[in-house]
Write a structure and sequence with these properties.
The structure is a single chain. Helix content is 32%, strand content 23%. It contains 14 helices and 15 strands. It has 2 domains: 10-98 and 108-237, no CATH class; 248-283 and 304-372. A 7-stranded mixed sheet has the order 1-11-10-9-8-2-3. Strands 7-6-13-12 form a 4-stranded antiparallel sheet, with no helix packed on it. A two-stranded antiparallel sheet has the order 4-5. By secondary structure, it is α+β, with helices and mostly antiparallel strands. Helix 5 links the parallel strand 9 and strand 10 (187-192). Bound molecules: iron/sulfur cluster (2 copies).
Length: 376
């Protein structure tokens, strides 16, 4: 039976992709999207379609990542790379203020200006949209709003892409974050490779609709809708890991002394890679930098990690001195404390922490082991 589309959908032929770049540029957005850097697919500034990883794919396992050629010219035929969109919305370093001592020896403070750049994110995946929604909640809560994040977010256009294939380390199906993308986007595409290379497009906002109108895209046929729907439908089932998300909170709080923590601590290097690549991790610290003349100072916010010793430093010393305590803190916060703080789990199942852990520690295996043999 042919499926009827829920909202109007359009077709952008692959050969017209440069037109999309031009429209976005005319609207004074800086386009950020996937491109190959350092043998990985990262997000960077894009000027032309040729900078996309056309015809490339990635292979991921615990502690392993490599690229290879596909046998087609897919534009988005890869999974997520080491970098998430938080690099652009919540950059690794952000100046908060500077101060200067004037001639009368008075200190003058000046807040860092709010960013004015308008970003268009191209190729945002379903799990990544869920991660952005989590960070929106964390950084834009009224009382503790981060004005730099809020301004960047306000100025961001989201051009999302539905995955049509899950990677080895993806578990969006288990976390409930898998495609199809249904909210929080301006424009979403599904890549169709045959019989003609094109993209099924849906607009999710007035900004997305305006791009559709400017490009004068033709409406998609029922067959094209059906092809795109079928390509996306199987992803959820491909990205399942053998653990249950239900009752994780109590499981983790009840098993703080489980032998799993000792076992994982034998392998964990406490390198913090997992937290830096994670699209939902948001911990930061501040540091002050003064000049040699002692007349000016700057305060910078920078990413930090619960794996660093200094992160739990309070008067008198560091609270979490062992690797075991730091790993347990990370996992317990993600899957238990996060629920108390923000009303959701803190993981979207992107699998980055598994791929980029140098020793291939897999959080889904730790959770499954706790569920299989709880001490309480
Ligand atoms: S904890 Fe791992 S799988 Fe979950 S969102 Fe973070 S990086 Fe992705
Ligand atoms: S779990 Fe892996 S990535 Fe995370 S701190 Fe330990 S060794 Fe590093």
């Amino acid at each position: 039976m042919e499926r009827q589309p829920p909202s109007p959908s359009y077709i952008l032929d692959a050969e017209r992709f440069p037109d999309l770049f031009q429209v976005v540029s005319r609207q004074e957005y800086t386009l950020i999207g996937p491109t190959i850097q350092n043998q990985t697919i990262c997000y960077g500034k894009l000027e032309t379609v040729n900078e996309l990883p056309i015809g490339w794919t990635d292979h991921q396992q615990g502690g392993k990542y490599e690229l290879s050629r596909r046998d087609d010219d897919a534009y988005f035929g890869y999974q997520v790379g080491p970098q998430s969109w938080k690099e652009w919305l919540f950059p690794p370093r952000q100046r908060l203020w500077k101060s200067r001592r004037d001639k009368e020896h008075q200190l003058k403070f000046e807040a860092a200006p709010l960013p004015e750049q308008r970003y268009a994110f191209l190729g945002v995946r379903s799990c990544e949209l869920h991660a952005i929604a989590m960070q929106d909640h964390i950084f834009q809560e009224e009382e503790f709003c981060n004005p730099y994040y809020a301004r960047r977010r306000q100025n961001t256009l989201i051009l999302a892409v539905n995955c049509t294939q899950a990677g080895n380390n993806c578990f969006c199906g288990t976390m409930g974050t898998s495609p199809p993308i249904t909210q929080n986007y301006d424009w979403v595409m599904t890549e169709i490779l045959a019989p003609t290379h094109c993209f099924l497009v849906e607009a999710g906002s007035e900004a997305g609709e305006a791009i559709v109108q400017e490009l004068q895209l033709p409406e998609a046929s029922v067959t094209q809708n059906q092809t795109a729907h079928e390509a996306v439908a199987s992803v959820k089932d491909q990205a399942i890991r053998p653990f249950e998300t239900k009752d994780l909170r109590n499981l983790l709080y009840d098993n703080l002394e489980h032998s799993q923590w000792d076992e994982v601590a034998q392998r964990c290097l406490s390198c913090a890679n997992c937290t830096l690549v994670c699209p939902t991790c948001f911990c930061s610290t501040v540091e002050d930098v003064s000049d040699i003349s002692n007349t000016s100072t700057q305060r910078w916010q920078r990413w930090d990690s619960c794996f660093s010793l200094d992160f739990s430093y309070i008067h008198g010393g560091t609270v979490r001195t062992s690797v075991k305590s730091r790993y347990r803190q990370w996992l317990t916060h993600k899957f238990a404390g996060w629920q108390d703080q923000f009303g959701s789990l803190g993981c979207v199942g992107c699998g980055r922490c598994i791929t980029w852990c140098p020793v291939g520690i897999d959080i889904t295996e730790i959770l499954a082991a706790l569920q299989d043999s709880p001490t309480n």
